[in-house]
Amino acid sequence: MAYVDGFVIPVAKKNLESYRRMSRKAGKIWREHGALDYKECVGEDLKIKGVASFPRAIGAKRGETVVFSWILYRSRQQRDKVNAKVMKDPRIAKMMAAGKEPFDPRRMLYAGFQVIVDV
């Protein structure tokens, strides 16, 4: 069954272009190492009445928006292999060098999910 890594990250609006450039590079690296799909999406319709708000749940501050992202794999095993390769890739280490990220990685929500519906 397919497997997805999911992320929710608050990003300062002034850093969105830098984040997009970094994400484009990261996505190419994940795909090179075997990920089936890689998506990064910026919040656009975030104030919906009657439901929990992404900005509130992630603790977004003034001037920040929310990025919702996912990476698709064939299985949990394939995800673990791909991520091991990605984490050893020097291009990722260079991108994530301390202080250079366009977001605060300590505020990122991240988890792995098994797909239960794929229509």
Describe the structure.
The chain is an alpha+beta fold and 119 residues long. The chain has a single domain (3-114), classed as 2-Layer Sandwich (Alpha-Beta Plaits), CATH 3.30.70.100. It has 4 helices and 4 strands. The chain has a 4-stranded antiparallel β-sheet with strand order 2-3-1-4. The longest helix has 17 residues, at 16-32. The protein is globular and about 40 Å long. It starts with a strand and ends in a 5-residue tail after the last strand.
Q: Bin the strand percentage.
A: 25-35%
Overall, the morphology is globular
Q: In which order are the strands of the major sheet placed?
A: 2-3-1-4
What is the residue-mean pLDDT, rounded to a whole number? 95
Number of helices: 4
**Looking at the chains present, what oligomeric state does this protein adopt?**
single chain
Distance between the termini: 13 Å
Q: H/E order of the elements?
A: EHEHEHHE
Q: Largest sheet, if any? A: 4 strands, antiparallel
What is the annotated CATH architecture?
2-Layer Sandwich
Give the C-level CATH assignment: Alpha Beta
Low-pLDDT sequence parts: none
CATH topology: Alpha-Beta Plaits
Structural category is: alpha+beta
